[in-house]
Design a protein that fits this description.
14% helix
Amino acid sequence: MGTGAEKLSDISLELNDGPSRMQVELSSETPLSCMFQRRPIFWEIHVASQVVAHFGLSRVDPLPGAVIQAMSTARK
């Protein structure tokens, strides 16, 4: 999904971990790794407010590489 022309500011990640939800606006400065404190965490990728992908990361997954890979997959 997506045209590949979305600005980074149009893309966000939303933590979907049962009762706790948190949205993270992506930017080149976002230190995502600080948020991975416990157990696998499930994220939704939003492009222009539409959910385009879901993925899970554990605290050992490299970031932001895993996020970039998931976003790339979501755009296809």
